[in-house]
Amino acid sequence: xxxxxxxxRDHANLGPGDSEWLHLLVGDWQLVADLAFADLALxxxxxxxxxxxxxxxxxxxxxxxxxxxxxxDFVGDRIRSDLSPLVAKAWVSQVIERSADTSxxxxxxxxxVEAVPMVRNGRTLAVVTTHxxxxxxxxxxxxxxxxxxxxxxxxxxxTLGLWPDFASPTGSRRGAPRVGxxxxxxxxxxxxxxxxxxxxxAYRRLGDVESLEGRSLAEAxxxxxxxxxMVDETLPLVVTGRMPWRxxxxxxxxxxxxxxxxxxDANERFGAVVLCRDVSELRRxxxxxVTKDATIREIHHRVKNNLxxxxxxxxxxxxxxxxxEGKQGLAQAMRRVGTIALVHExxxxxxxxxxxxxxxxxxxxxxxxxxxxxxxxxxxxxxxVFGELPSDFATPLALVINELVTNAVEHGLQDREGTVWxxxxxxxxxxxxxxLNVQVSDDGVGLPSGPYSEGLGLQIVRTLVTSELGGSIRWxxxxxxxxxxxxxxxxxSRGA
Length: 496
Fold this sequence. Notes:
The chain has 13 helices and 18 strands. It is elongated, with a radius of gyration of 33 Å. Helices cover 38% and strands 24% of the residues. The chain folds into four domains: 2-159, Beta-Lactamase; 179-278, 2-Layer Sandwich (Beta-Lactamase), CATH 3.30.450; 281-351; 354-496, Histidine kinase-like ATPase, C-terminal domain (Heat Shock Protein 90, 2-Layer Sandwich), CATH 3.30.565.10. By secondary structure, it is of the alpha+beta class. The two termini are 30 Å apart. The model has no long low-confidence stretch (mean pLDDT 83). The chain has helices spanning 6-10, 18-28, 30-36, 84-93, 142-159, 197-206, 217-222, 235-239, 280-320, 324-347, 357-372, 391-413, 456-468; strands at 2-3, 39-45, 55-61, 97-98, 111-120, 123-133, 183-187, 192-195, 246-251, 254-264, 269-278, 354-356, 378-383, 388-390, 418-428, 434-442, 472-477, 483-490. The longest helix is centred in the middle third of the chain and has 41 residues, at 280-320. It has a six-stranded antiparallel β-sheet, with helices on both faces. It has a five-stranded antiparallel β-sheet with strand order 8-7-11-10-9.
């Protein structure tokens, strides 16, 4: 479906709710195209143009129940002269107008064209044209006749402002029923007038072996429910066709999604269309994903617990060490293990395999500085936003920041009071890649004047930045004294 939305949004004469109503129409008119076996186009007068002449195509939808009559996209184009009089007539008359000429836009295909004004609060907001291919001359089946009657009823409701309905479901849950999945037409009393073969098959999978026609759909549905305590409260209003809602029923391991579209005229409801779809496989896969997510969270939780156990063992070993250098080494190992454990703890609390890195590093940043400086006063300041980061990116980045902060406190400040800054900035490169820039700075003694050897911490930093994060690292003197370490890396999922 192609759509050109700017004229809807920019037109000055629309009243409150008119733009939303037209967007709701375009969001749901695939239903009508499939029922009508026709292409639909939405026309709107150009700004400051005479409604009798200047129209532009705002949207176009092709049917999935038959072939299209328009193979090229015309959204955004002005109306052709042979169609303009019909659209203009419908705009003014506010009733459905039918073309006497069946040639349409393509002389090779005989088409029946109708112009349907979409009227709301007494004002014509747009005109929908339906284009049906008449070249295949055959006797229409009962299914086709019922489908077309349903489409005609819905379009006529559009001229009365009764369809689309703002109460219609707009959620994006997978498994919304479509015309081809199964259609049931009800009368005003909820009695089935017609059920498509797919609709009958869906109910038979639920356990119903009788014909649906001539029966109350509400009674037929209720008889199939094994556990009525779990019934959705919207079910009675959907299976009687009284409200334009969606519901779902489950019985004998089969899940059936139902959607009702009440049919109304100016005075009363005269029937309804109920779409049904077997969504058993979809729900089974969703349940598998939920189970998988729960399993992944449990794994992260157990990894976190195991890492905390490792840290506790290292702490116990540290207390038995006589060498001060050995104690410091174990303390550094505990900090590194604790940093990894913190990432897994964060992942165990959510469904997504991504981390709110600002929340995680906020705690870790302060903790790293405090643990590295038990006998000195070190302040920490943060600036910028990291945002959501993939877990396979967050773990090495947290380790790198932990090592850089520890290095800044132990070697940059050297047993004196000072401040460590952490700054993050996300930007877009010229190539369209998202770049994360991280700076860790201190106001300490600065870089050594001569050559120096890197300790284990800085070796870990270089390895993680280049191999795990695919980034670069640079040391420089900070303006005002001290050192700045700058990291730059592209935010590309490591699994890509």
